[in-house]
Fold these 3 entries.
Entry 1:
Amino acid sequence: MSLVYLWRLGRNPLARGSDRVEAAIFVLGVLLALLGVPLAAAAGSEAYAGMMARSALETASRHSTTAFLLEDAPPARVGVDGTPSVETASVAARWALPDGRFQEAAVSVDLGASAGDAVTVWLDESGAVVEPPVTPLDAASTGIGVGVGVWLSAVTLLAAGYLLARHLLNRARWAAWDREWARFGQDSRWL
């Protein structure tokens, strides 16, 4: 529906009441979708702030170190199109602690890594292997994803509501046409 169509519909004496109701539902849906933009932005901003707080906490409590693999990872798989797989495997590795001792644990590495390869591992304050901290880029992409996701969900619900209303209005219009044709049929018998 275009704005010109809606303008003409309001001034058209042949427009049915159901046409005006449908147009009003459409305009209301568009307005609600536009009003949803700031709400979606607020949700995305909140998700971003939460992820940035998590990033700061994890960055302060985790540190990276270089570990060396003690065994080979399974061989890399190549897809049908010739691209290598991006799968990982758990392999034993060893790294030096600040006090000079060594620690060993299973770490996640790309398939095809060989014994002796250097890999970066992240450790928490107790020395346990953990995931890398959340980066600001991760926080930004989460915020954008949440904002866009919230808005698209709202628009999808609004569109579904409009389509349902249009379907119900069409059923009412068809029923009115059937009644008019039935009345016309009864009236024409007496002509």
Entry 2:
Amino acid sequence: MSAPLDIAGPAAPPRSNGELVFAEPWESRAFGMAVTLYEAGAFTWPDFQAALIARIAAWEASAADEPYNYYRLWLAALEDVLADMRTVSTGEITTRAQDLAQRPPGHDHHDHHDHDEHHDHPH
């Protein structure tokens, strides 16, 4: 079984000097979500790779109306795998994605002062 970070060929994630590259915070979240769900046994990695390769091929076959964005295709492949396995419905995915897209910038970040007060160790 291939490990998520061993993806090669057309489905390989963007890298710079061997390190994964994320242009925006949501990209790293999408990547982490897929890896976490895979590690939890939600789907097999070959199933995800096949879905990702299919999404990339579909983008290439289209007139490329939208610019190439690896992590948009990654997220779409994750949605495909989860919907195919009936883990979640397509409607649930769409609703959740719309909810997340409407969150204000910085919503996921905690105030450092509040965060630090909950730890017993010095920083």
Entry 3:
Amino acid sequence: MSIDWIHELLVSVRLIVAFLLGAFIGWEREHHGQEAGIRTFGLISLGACSFGLISIFVEYGDQGRIAAQIVSGIGFLGAGVIMRDSGHLKGITTAATIWCSASVGTAIAFDMYVIGILTASIILLFHALRNTKYWALVSNKKIPGHPLHKDS
């Protein structure tokens, strides 16, 4: 299937939306001192969207294979941010957020704006809740200096 330039410009709106949603997720992570931030998450979401769009328009082979490889490829990238430090794992949430950001881009690629926006919103909400006083009540983790957790 060939795609004319006007249709390609209209489809490119999906790329912009995917990048902006991913960048917004990255802004939240960067704002809270995480290494992976605006550029990382924006580019992951953009790349996932781009691969998703490419998979829609290929004329040969299995169109779902490109989108399916996003899942394992981003998983490999996310694994690279997980580190062990003094017996504790660090970066697991960042890795999971990277993986979920790829789903935002893929959803936008397949013209599923509600799913993409909802997924980005849930990611942001989940991270925002971590910084509330109620998180300590829900989480079993001891948060140093948190008023609702007494240091043992």
